[in-house]
Specification:
The protein has about 280 residues and is an alpha/beta fold. It has helices at about 20-25, 70-75, 115-120, 140-145, 165-175, 190-200, 250-255, 260-275, and strands at about 1-10, 15-20, 35, 45-55, 60-65, 80, 85-90, 100-105, 125-135, 150-155, 165, 180-185, 205-210, 225-230, 230-235, 240-245. Among the domains are: about 1-90, Translation factors (Elongation Factor Tu (Ef-tu), domain 3, Beta Barrel), CATH 2.40.30.10; about 100-200, 3-Layer(aba) Sandwich (Rossmann fold). The protein binds flavin-adenine dinucleotide and magnesium ion.
Length: about 280
């Protein structure tokens, strides 16, 4: 059992939860993730760490309430418990001096960039962060990203804050004006796909953090398989970070929609049981 320390709404449908998990908090590295099960009937929810405090023994995660299990996580109050928190899982990013590093994040993909940027800056990298959301009210962790960035570019689809348009448009402009050494991106699959196409055009290395449907997260069930460079890889143990120019994004997008019907049934039932109108 792992105690919830806080569970606060950042913007509608996106929450930040801190959980007491001293061993994981000490060991987890940028790029890794955990799997949470809220209760013994619960699904396994893979979630990337957005921060960790080894002294307090806390792991922080930012999650979007998209369906039954993430909404259930959202009901937990400080002092309550999740049944399991498994981790750290996955391969961390390589920490070294690259030079100019662009962090590109969309929506709930922004928080996992924070520990990566914090660590890479300590290695002397120049950090340019490009973060975006549909509108200004949905943008998360701007202040935190500012604190670890040498340059911060904000985009919103509707122009209500920063530059109007997509993060990838801003990325292309940065790539035109600077010699970027590495791009790290977390966000919607379509954003990571377009960023990878741009990176390929400019000949810049890009690392994407994949979030396919995942079950056991230890390399046994093969549910999170994806095609990278023509080979089958498991996002849980070989990733979740891969060279974006080699990822078959169209296959991933198709497979992420496999259980839409079942997910809707589960959410409708959850809403009914909890008196939520859907
Ligand atoms: P559902 O209604 O069951 O599903 C909604 C959609 O979420 C589905 O259509 C599917 O595309 C996806 N999904 C469903 N089940 C899973 C599953 N077991 N694994 C992965 N995707 C699933 N989300 C965050 O908000 N923050 C994060 O930091 C984060 N990190 C992730 C790291 C990894 C390595 C992976 C694989 C996923 C991550 N996700 C993250 C996605 C998150 O796990 C899913 O949104 C969540 O499991 C959905 O569960 P649900 O029951 O609420 O939604
Ligand atoms: Mg689910």
């Amino acid at each position: 059992m792992f105690e919830v320390v806080s569970n606060d709404e950042l913007v509608p449908n996106i929450k930040r939860i801190s959980i007491k998990a001293p061993v994981v908090a000490k060991k987890i590295q940028p790029g890794q993730f955990v799997v949470i099960r809220v209760n013994d009937e619960g699904e396994r929810i893979p979630l990337t760490h957005a921060d960790n405090d080894p002294e307090k023994g806390e792991v922080t995660i930012v999650y979007q309430e998209v369906g039954k299990s993430t909404k259930l996580l959202g009901t937990l109050k400080p002092g309550e418990y999740v049944l399991d928190l498994l981790g750290p899982l996955g391969v961390p990013i390589e920490l070294k001096k690259y030079g100019i590093v662009v962090l590109l994040g969309g929506g709930v993909g922004i928080p996992p960039l924070y520990p990566k940027g914090k660590a890479l800056r300590e290695y002397g990298n120049h950090i340019i962060s490009i973060i975006g959301a549909r509108n200004k009210d949905l943008l998360v962790m701007e202040d935190e990203m500012k604190s670890i960035s040498d340059e911060l570019i904000v985009t919103t689809d509707d122009g209500s804050k920063g530059r109007k348009g997509f993060t990838v448009d801003a990325l292309k402009d940065v790539l035109k004006s600077k010699k970027v050494d590495l791009i790290i991106t977390v966000g919607p699959l379509i954003m990571m796909k377009n960023a990878s196409l741009a990176a390929k055009d400019f000949g810049v290395r890009i690392e994407v953090s994949l979030n396919p449907i995942m079950l056991d997260a230890t390399g046994m069930c093969a549910v999170c398989r994806c095609t990278v460079g023509g080979e089958t890889k498991f996002a849980c143990v070989h990733g979740p970070i891969f060279d974006g120019t080699k990822v078959n994004f169209d296959e991933l997008i198709r497979r992420s929609r496999t259980y839409l019907e079942e997910e809707k049934v589960a959410l409708d039932l959850f809403n009914k049981q909890n008196g939520v109108k859907s």
